[in-house]
Amino acid sequence: MKRSKNSSRPTRRKKNATVPSRSSAPVPSRRQVLSGWAKTGLGIAVVGGGAGLLLTRTVQADIREHDLGRIGQGVPMVVQVHDPMCPTCLSLQKQVRKAMKAFGEDELQYAIASLDKPDGRDLAIRNGVGKITLLLFDARGERQAILHGPNTAERLEPIFRRHAETR
User: Fold this and answer.
1) CATH classification of 70-166 is 3.40.30.10, yes or no?
2) What's the half-sphere exposure (Cβ side, CA atoms, 13 Å) at 21?
3) CB neighbours of residue 114 within 10 Å
4) Residues of the chain where predicted confidence (pLDDT) is lower than 50
5) Which of 19, 72, 146, 164 is placed for a possible disulfide with 108 were both Cys, Cβ 3.0 to 4.6 Å?
6) pLDDT in tens, 123-154
């Protein structure tokens, strides 16, 4: 009688078959294992803390950027009337931020009047403008100019420079 391949019987080893030996590597002690976990935990805490700090700074910068109460507080302002769902508005925002890198906080400031927020809508209505628009305010908060449509940072920077000098 032949044995079937799917037999449930355990197979026998040949007498001369070699049995795999246990590794001679030392077993780590409890202290070594816990120390490794502590180092990993410390690394995770450092990375997590750094990410938290970056997120906090990003949120604070976003809050400041949307603070329209800064208009007329002694520093000229560029205010973008912005629709967050508009790709052209997002492109303009990127170009304005790039142009603003040439200025210090005491020279010229940037704010966003978001059309999805009441204060942003109110500012746009008071100035009779829609999205994809930049409003230039002097240090006293009086509107000096309106720029409509998309622009490049290269074109905006000299305009902003002249505006910042008017104080």
Assistant:
1) yes
2) 3
3) 22
4) none
5) 164
6) 999 999 999 999 999 999 999 999 999 999 99
